[in-house]
């Protein structure tokens, strides 16, 4: 089984409880572990895969809380770092229509430093880049770029999720697009939401968007479409794979559960080429990942809602 290195941020989401969209009026918040790459590492581990998280938290109680959650989920945190800067915090309120108000207090996640000892461990393994905060600058961005280079050098399978956050890139979408492009060019697998696919390809039509991404170099493209399932595209075929029917309560983390489940399955194969060449195998993998995403929407929160192997097999 291959190891999956998940690189990026781990932070606290303070979610406003029942107060509508206006954060200025929010009185109560619940503390949740957040950070897409960290969620992905938990999704993999919960399904029996081997995942490692590479990111930085503050040397404070929030950092301790976050790393403890990953440890409880059996994620290898031996390469996680702690810095003197406070743990990154996000405050968010969401109203019934999904409208968000958002305050982001960026701290330790940006301070991840490069660890040269990891390069040899990347050999023939899987690197997953979840880019919600990584491309916003700081030492994390430089480290991120170096690990991408190391991964390519060591023949690792590269996976990329841009994790576009409107609030973080307001009025600088062009910078986001420019910074994502090298990752799309170098990745074997890219996972996009509908909005990300359109933004990063410059095409509204998803078939045209996939063509742009394939021409850039990505071999497998998955575009997650919520209850509609997932569009899967390779150079040979393109199809939408339906999801299962659920009664969603909270869609947070569905995309992370999806990509985590897909990577966990890919990690079981010694040769990526075999996966790519087998349409039926790839289709079944995406169908299973759809199920993982769907199950995650049935409960509140991200990590706590990720499916176990038992739930997924039932
Ligand atoms: P995130 O907001 O976490 O970044 P995302 O937008 O990438 O996620 P979604 O499309 O919401 O991801 O969900 C990922 C996958 O989970 C979907 O492709 C689908 O298979 C499944 N899924 C999500 N929501 C539902 C739903 N309401 N019903 C059935 N399946 C769902």
TrEMBL record:
Keywords on record: Kinase, Transferase
One GO term (biological process): fructose metabolic process
Protein's organism: Maribacter stanieri
Annotated signal peptide: none
Source superkingdom: Bacteria
Name of this protein: Fructokinase
Protein family (similarity comment): Belongs to the carbohydrate kinase PfkB family.
SUPFAM superfamilies linked: Ribokinase-like
GO molecular function: fructokinase activity
PANTHER family: HEXOKINASE FAMILY MEMBER, PUTATIVE-RELATED
Kinase found in the keyword field: yes
Every Carbohydrate kinase PfkB domain range: 1-308
A matching Pfam family: PfkB
């Amino acid at each position: 089984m291959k190891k999956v290195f998940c690189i990026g941020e781990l932070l606290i989401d303070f979610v406003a409880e029942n107060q509508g969209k206006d954060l200025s009026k929010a009185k109560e918040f619940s503390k949740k572990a957040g950070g897409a790459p960290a969620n992905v590492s938990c999704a993999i581990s919960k399904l029996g895969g081997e995942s490692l998280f590479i990111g930085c938290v503050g040397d404070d109680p929030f950092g301790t809380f976050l790393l403890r959650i990953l440890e409880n989920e059996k994620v290898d945190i031996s390469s996680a770092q702690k810095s003197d800067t406070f743990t990154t915090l996000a405050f968010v309120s969401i109203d019934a229509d999904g409208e968000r108000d958002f305050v982001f207090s960026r701290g330790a996640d940006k301070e991840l430093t490069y660890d040269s000892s990891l390069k040899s461990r990347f050999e023939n393994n899987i690197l997953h880049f979840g880019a919600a905060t990584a491309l916003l600058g700081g030492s994390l961005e430089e480290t991120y770029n170096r690990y991408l280079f190391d991964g390519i050098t060591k023949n690792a399978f590269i996976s990329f999720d841009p994790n576009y956050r409107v609030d973080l890139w307001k009025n600088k979408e062009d910078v986001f697009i420019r910074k994502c492009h090298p990752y799309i060019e170098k990745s074997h697998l890219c996972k996009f939401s509908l909005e990300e696919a359109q933004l990063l390809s410059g095409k509204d039509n998803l078939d045209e968007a996939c063509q742009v991404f394939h021409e850039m170099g990505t071999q497998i493209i998955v575009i997650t479409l919520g209850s509609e399932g997932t569009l899967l595209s390779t150079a040979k075929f393109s199809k939408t794979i339906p999801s299962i029917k659920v009664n969603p309560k909270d869609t947070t983390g569905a995309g992370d559960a999806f990509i985590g489940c897909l990577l966990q399955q890919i990690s079981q194969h010694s040769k990526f080429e075999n996966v790519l060449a087998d349409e039926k195998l790839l289709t079944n993998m995406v169908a299973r990942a759809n199920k993982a995403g769907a199950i995650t929407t049935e409960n509140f929160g991200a990590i706590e809602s990720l499916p176990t192997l038992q739930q997924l097999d039932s």
